[in-house]
Structures are given as C-alpha cells and as structure tokens.
C-alpha cells in the first residue's frame, strides 16, 4: 500500500500549515510586542556594523549550496544522491565546528570577565589547534575521495609512479 499523496493534497497540506502558522503568529502578537514602536528602535545600523561579515558569509554559503544543488540535479539521480550525502556530512561538520567556536567564545568571555587571561589564552590555543587539526584531517580525505571518484568513473588514477 502506497502512502504517497497526490500533488494537490500536498499543496493543500502546505497551505494549511502556513495558515496555522499565521493564526499562531497573530495570537502571539496580541500577547507580546514583537515589533518596537518605532523603526529607529530596531537599530539596523548597529546590526549591520557588527554583523555585516556574518551576513555576507551566510549569503555566500547559501548561494554556493543552491548553485551546487542545481548543478548536481542536472547530472542525474546518482550524482545528486552522492551530493546529498556530501552535503549532509558538510552540514554536520559545520554545525559541530560552530558549536566548538561558540563554546570557545563563551569560555574565553568568562575567563576575561574573571580576569583569568592565562585560561583565555589556553582555551584560544586549544580551539585553534582543534580547528586546524580537523581541517588537516579533512584535507587528507580529499585525495582519497578523488581516487574513489576516478575508479567509479573508470579512469586511470593519478599516481606518482
């Protein structure tokens, strides 16, 4: 027995979910002030001054992932499946390293607040070591992945002899 829904049912389900979200947002707005009384209170200048590079990074990564997904989809089902596996590994490692960076920032901020500069120095050094070490491990896997890809495609491998 198949559990797939026709396209019209999926569209109806999506519309119901959006409507439900809108209703919940309206109820929340009656109980909580979500927007400040003035646009000047949003402090966009402060946000862009402090977060412009992060915003640019997010836009660049989103653009690259969207473009790569589009290109992989044009190659067919098997390359798209391989791309999705690689994308999931990349997203997982990205989230792990973001967590490491955030934890390091919190520990360093606490150490600075306590004026324990030696602890801050040790934590910063250790986080940098972990970052460089993981990047070195990832770069060691790249030639192996290319070698596997060449075998999959039936080409001769690029060996030094």
UniProtKB/TrEMBL annotation:
Assigned GO CC terms: membrane
Pfam family, one: MatE
GO molecular function terms noted in the UniProt entry: antiporter activity; citrate transmembrane transporter activity; xenobiotic transmembrane transporter activity
Entry's transmembrane regions: 12-30, 51-75, 87-112
Major localisation: membrane
Keywords of the record: Membrane, Transmembrane, Transmembrane helix
Localization in the cell: Membrane
Database matches in InterPro entries: DinF-like, MATE_fam
Membrane topology (UniProt): Multi-pass membrane protein
Family the UniProt entry places it in: Belongs to the multi antimicrobial extrusion (MATE) (TC 2.A.66.1) family.
The protein's name in its UniProt record: Uncharacterized protein
Originating species: Camellia sinensis var. sinensis (China tea)
């Amino acid at each position: 027995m198949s559990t797939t829904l026709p396209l019209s049912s999926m569209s109806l389900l999506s519309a119901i979910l959006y409507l439900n979200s809108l209703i919940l947002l309206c109820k929340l707005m009656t109980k909580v002030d979500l927007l400040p009384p003035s646009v000047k209170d949003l402090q966009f200048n402060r946000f862009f001054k402090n977060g412009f590079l992060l915003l640019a990074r997010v836009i660049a990564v989103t653009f690259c992932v969207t473009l790569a997904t589009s290109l992989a989809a044009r190659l067919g089902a098997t390359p798209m499946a391989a791309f999705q596996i690689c994308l999931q590994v990349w997203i997982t490692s990205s989230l792990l390293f973001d967590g490491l960076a955030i934890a390091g920032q919190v520990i360093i901020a606490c150490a600075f607040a306590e004026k324990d500069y030696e602890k801050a120095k040790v934590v910063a050094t250790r986080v940098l070591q972990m970052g460089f070490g993981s990047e070195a491990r990832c770069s060691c896997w790249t030639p192996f992945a290319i070698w596997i890809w060449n075998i999959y495609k039936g080409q001769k491998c690029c060996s030094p002899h």
